[in-house]
Amino acid sequence: MSSCPYDDSRIHAALEEITGPQGILTAAEDLESYVRDQRGKYHGRACAVVFPRSTEEVSRIVRFCSNEGIGMVPQGGNTGLVGGSVPDESGREIILSLKRMNRIRAMDSENFTLTVEAGCILQDIQNAAAEADRLFPLSLGAEGTCQIGGNLSTNAGGVQVLRYGNARDLVLGLEVVLADGRIWNGLRGLRKDNTGYDLKQLFLGAEGTLGIITAAVLKLYARPREIVTALATVPDPDSAVSLLSRLRTASGESVTSFELMPARGIEFACRHIEGCRNPLDAPSPWYVLLELFGGREGSDLSETLQEAFGACLEEGLVQDAVLAQNESQRRELWRLREGLVEAQKHEGASIKHDVSVPVSEVPAFLAEATKIVTDLVEGARPVPFGHLGDGNIHFNISQPEGMDPRAFLARWDEVNRHVHDVVARLGGSISAEHGIGQLKREENMRFKSEVEIDLMRSLKYALDPEDLMNPGKLV
């Protein structure tokens, strides 16, 4: 039975009047997939899940909940990794799902913009851009199910941040429903607008705590005519950083992705994931998967890359390399990177980190964090991988072989604290692309200055004084 603090039937009837009978779920069994996160770490309760079809319906729902004092948890594809889209256990909150708001409102290929609603699946947006001979570069593992509203609310990153930036860098305008139900229409496709505060930036990365993003004007780019993909082995992370610098200079900033992977991760992927194969015979402690985009077919990007590899081989920065010769081989190389993530669950429990440091400090971070973790937990198996090009490392640790998974996961907070201390000493961030949500809220306060905390709380109070917008998250 729901523990909504008001008459459930009255609340449900009022919400159904707004959304229609197909726009609300109230039975516990129907709510189950919406009240837990995909990792199984958080499991809440909700008074209802509502599915508005328009910005006006979102506004009416928010206005009603504001008047009733009901907390609202906006939810996209529920693919987040920090519990940001999961309600608390009180049953006194509703989940506001944007999945029915999935229209592409406008394509302006001459302005290189696409206007979309928050419930659009990321992959559908990529496809719509491609049909117009354009590129929307945000790309991540969950792109087949995640929604753009969630991507923008968490400032998602992905594999092409090095060249195109995070989600916040790909937005020109927003439409947002505020905590009192008012609609701010900032859907402007302008690259220059110097008329005051850049209000959209308040809501990008705010995880739904200041307002609900209902639509966005996204930046598009020219579709690449040439894609060059390669897998290289390097002796150590220092060599990988030097290789990245060389390639950025040699290619005129054509490097789009630069992913660092350890030998253990490659071994896990080839052991557990169908379709994963290491094309390089000689073993190596570190691998780099890299990709370059070119503006015209038949350009010299492939030749540029091979020449750079040749020089780096002579200097010992690169040990071996293979270039994809066709799209099938390209997909095989990326399957290794994707399989590395998937394979870790087959090796038992894993303590995870999503951190960033300056690119030049990545080798120092890896060395320090690995030593600390292996000293703390005998037999721990670090699997650090990620977007070396922008300094974002997913420092995951697989449990020691034979250890009880629950005993290992009980060390989560202790291990996190030590790893995050290393990150802080190197001038980094404890959340590079996953957000704060519930998982890192207290830890975030440990590293923010008093001034930053005060500013964040002031913004929250100014825009959501009753704390009804995704309460208990971020701040």
Automatic annotation (TrEMBL):
- Describe the location of the FAD-binding PCMH-type domain by residue ranges: 42-223
Q: Name one Pfam family in it.
A: FAD_binding_4
Q: Which UniProt keywords apply?
A: FAD, Flavoprotein
The record's InterPro entries line, in alphabetical order, gives: FAD-bd_oxidored_4_C (IPR004113), FAD-bd_PCMH (IPR016166), FAD-bd_PCMH-like_sf (IPR036318), FAD-bd_PCMH_sub1 (IPR016167), FAD-bd_PCMH_sub2 (IPR016169), FAD-linked_Oxase-like_C (IPR016164), FAD-oxidored/transferase_4 (IPR051264), Oxid_FAD_bind_N (IPR006094)
The record's similarity note reads:
Belongs to the FAD-binding oxidoreductase/transferase type 4 family.
Q: What is this protein called?
A: FAD-binding oxidoreductase
Q: Which organism is it from?
A: Fodinicurvata halophila
